[in-house]
Every structure is written in structure tokens, then in C-alpha cells.
Design brief:
Elements: H1 16-22, E1 32-33, H2 47-52, H3 68-77, E2 84-87, H4 89-99, E3 105-110, H5 115-122, E4 126-131, H6 141-147, E5 153-157, H7 169-182, E6 185-189, E7 211-216, E8 229-233, H8 235-244, H9 252-263, H10 265-288, E9 300-303, H11 309-321, E10 324-325, E11 327-328, E12 340-343, H12 347-361
Parallel strand pairs: 1-10, 3-4, 3-5, 5-6, 6-7
Antiparallel strand pairs: 2-8, 7-8, 9-12, 11-12
Helix pairs in contact: 3-9, 4-5, 10-12
Bound molecules: pyridoxal-5'-phosphate.
């Protein structure tokens, strides 16, 4: 089996064809995908029927004056529709947050999702990394507060992709207060907050004009192809983001699905029941096998076997040969390929993963 060059690893998870090719495996090799952090319950059961009745929606442009999607989100979040902008996935929300600070200086709490850096590069921001430290990926708050002098924007992800760790609310409150002094906007990506036991930061929006929260509906509802997310903030910031959004950016099907997705309380409670079973159990079972696994508040976890990237690559290949696709960490500054990220899935898939991880550790 041939190894991939670090620069050849794909940027995101879920890239099975590229990886099978890199490792010289047949393109039709069956794989269980632990590399993409999607809800293993699959999309809501009613979605197929909804979509089959939705064809007429495609005969018209998405209506920019339709307030119903923003209203549905505002109601769910306890905000006003003026504090909501529906976006083409969480990804567009990230790029809009960068566009609002084009040409400025950005801080990014890393290791984290690679798109913050890419969005900053796209809009000509200079980037400085705030490195999380230690095995539990903590932030040096004092260093962050000092670095905020002169920074237009600070990006962080909560819970963080790929570490799964979640910064305490009190730390965010300190950063927000500091941001008021330095004129720094905090952009907190909450793409995975619905998988967490901790609350969103939406209550902080009431008193903060320098806070933007980014959300994705594609992870929770297992709809990455739909492209649906939103941005929350003070009305002034949201208006500026709207001015920078491309016309008809969110398609008519995605707009039409906002309200029914958010109204599906049963789907959310089934997701919570699944998480209540897997999140305490799976990372702990992996720790017991002798791997390092930071505490996670997401639907995925990081794992380290040895001390270097060579061991992680060998484990990656070992899992791939057993039909299990992990996520490499070569493009996460600070992880540098030493760790693997794995999504939590349903019982039988998790059992197969644990079996393979146990086999790897057996002398
Ligand atoms: C932290 C984070 N934010 C945003 C996104 C993008 O989400 P979407 O599919 O809604 O664009 C991802 C996707 O992997 C992510 O990991």
C-alpha cells in the first residue's frame, strides 16, 4: 500500500475516492465513513416526500423578501429576524464574516477548521494564529487578550472542529469584553453546537454588537448537499453581511426547508438520545485501549496513538484496509498529522471501529 504525500491529503473529510486512489485501493472498496461529521440518523424521513412535492419552487427565483425562514430561525433562537441572515451553508457564513473585515488583521484559534484561514486569505486579511495548548487544547486567555490589540476579527469554533473541545462561556465573555475595548469582532462558529450538551452563545447577542454566531444545518440534518446555514448577530452587522451576500445565494429548496427542519422536534430528540449513548461511551472505550482522546463536546473525537505523523498514517492505512475511513489531520496547524479525527456513528459501526482500534494496539 502506498502512502499519500502530506500535501496530497484532501482538504476536507468524506473524500473517499481521492483517498482510495492515494492508497492504491479499488475505487469500489466498501467504506464506513468516520471522516465526515454528519448525523448518522440520516436526513429526516419526511424529506423525500417534501422534495418530490417541491419541484414547482424551482420555477421561480428564491424570494429575497420572504421573511419566513429568518422568522423561523429567530423564533427558535429567541432573537429578532433582523438578527438573522440565512446563508448557503455555514461555509458562506464564514466567508461573509471574513468579507466584513476585508483587509484587516484576523486572529484564528487553532487547530481548527481550515476555511477560516482560506476565507481570510480570500478577503486579504492578515492572519495570526492563537495556538491552543496541551492535551486538552486550552486557550491562553491572557495571550489572546494581548493579541486582540489591532485585530479586526477573532475566529473560533465552539465546539471546536477537529478537537471536539468547547471553550467555557466565561472565557468568551472575557474575550467579548476585551473586543469592545479593541474594536475586535468575535466570530464564533457553532456549526456543531446542537450536538453539544452546552448551550449556544445566543443569549450574549443581547448586549454585544461585536459578536457573530455562525450555524450550519447540514451537519445536524445530514444534508451537506443542500447548503444551508445562518449567521446571527446585531442587526447592524447582519445588515452589512446581507449587503455582501451574492444575489439568490440560498436556493429555493433550502429556504423552503428551514421552517420544517426546525419544527422537527422528534428528529432532534432522537439525535440527543443517540448522542447520550455514544458520546460518553465511545471516546472512553478508545481511551481504555491506550489512545490519547481529548474530552469532546461534539459528535466526533480526536485520537492519537504514537507521538508522530508516521504512526497516525500507518493507523489510517490500517483502518482503511478494514473498510473504515478516518480523517487525517495534516492540514490542521498544530496537529500536523499526528492525530486522527473520527466521527461517532451508530452502534454496529462504532463496534467495528473499536474492534479495529483494539487490533492495532494488540502486540
Ligand atoms: C466548523 C465548521 N463550520 C462550518 C462548516 C461548513 O458547514 P456547511 O456544510 O453548512 O457549509 C463545517 C464543515 O465541515 C465545519 O466543520
Amino acid at each position: 500500500m502506498k502512502a499519500a504525500n502530506p500535501q496530497d491529503w484532501p482538504e476536507h473529510g468524506g473524500r473517499r475516492t481521492a483517498l482510495l486512489k492515494h492508497f492504491g485501493l479499488p475505487p469500489d472498496q466498501p467504506l464506513i465513513d468516520f471522516s465526515a461529521n454528519l448525523n448518522p440518523l440520516g436526513p429526516p424521513a419526511w424529506l423525500g416526500e417534501w422534495l418530490s412535492g417541491a419541484a414547482p419552487r424551482l420555477a421561480a427565483y428564491p424570494n429575497p423578501d420572504d421573511e419566513a425562514p429568518a422568522r423561523a430561525i429567530a423564533e427558535r433562537e429567541g432573537l429578532t429576524p433582523e438578527q438573522v441572515l440565512v446563508t448557503n451553508g455555514g461555509a458562506e457564513a464564514i466567508y461573509l464574516a471574513a468579507a466584513l473585515h476585508a483587509g484587516g488583521h484576523a486572529l484564528i484559534v487553532e487547530p481548527t477548521f481550515s476555511e477560516y484561514r482560506l476565507a481570510c486569505a480570500h478577503y486579504g486579511l492578515t492572519v495570526e494564529s492563537l495556538a491552543l495548548y496541551g492535551e486538552d487544547f486550552a486557550l491562553d486567555l491572557g495571550a489572546a487578550e494581548r493579541a486582540m490589540q489591532g485585530a479586526a476579527v477573532l475566529f473560533l469554533c465552539r465546539p471546536n472542529n477537529p478537537t471536539g473541545t468547547l471553550m467555557p462561556r466565561e472565557s468568551l465573555e472575557r474575550l467579548l469584553a476585551r473586543g469592545r475595548e479593541t474594536g475586535t469582532t468575535l466570530v464564533v462558529d457553532e456549526a456543531f453546537i446542537d450536538f453539544s450538551d452546552e448551550a449556544s452563545l445566543t443569549p450574549l447577542l443581547a448586549g454585544a454588537s461585536n459578536l457573530l454566531l455562525l450555524r450550519s444545518l447540514t451537519k445536524l440534518y445530514d444534508l451537506p448537499g443542500l447548503r444551508l446555514g445562518y449567521l446571527l448577530g446585531a442587526p447592524g452587522l447582519v445588515r452589512k453581511a446581507r449587503e455582501r451576500q451574492m444575489p439568490w445565494s440560498v436556493n429555493a429548496l433550502a429556504l423552503g426547508l428551514v421552517a420544517p427542519l426546525l419544527a422537527d422536534a422528534d428528529y432532534l430528540s432522537r439525535t440527543r438520545a443517540w448522542l447520550a449513548g455514544v458520546r460518553p461511551a465511545v471516546p472512553e472505550a478508545v481511551r481504555v485501549l491506550g489512545y490519547a482522546v481529548p474530552a469532546t463536546q461534539a459528535n466526533f473525537f480526536l485520537l492519537r496513538s504514537g507521538q508522530d505523523a508516521t504512526e497516525a498514517e500507518a493507523l489510517f492505512a490500517f483502518l482503511l484496509c478494514r473498510g473504515l475511513l478516518a480523517r487525517h489531520t495534516h492540514n490542521f496547524p498544530g496537529l500536523d498529522g499526528h492525530w486522527l479525527r473520527l466521527a461517532m456513528r451508530d452502534g454496529p459501526d462504532n463496534a467495528r471501529l473499536l474492534e479495529a482500534l483494539a487490533a492495532w494496539r494488540r502486540p
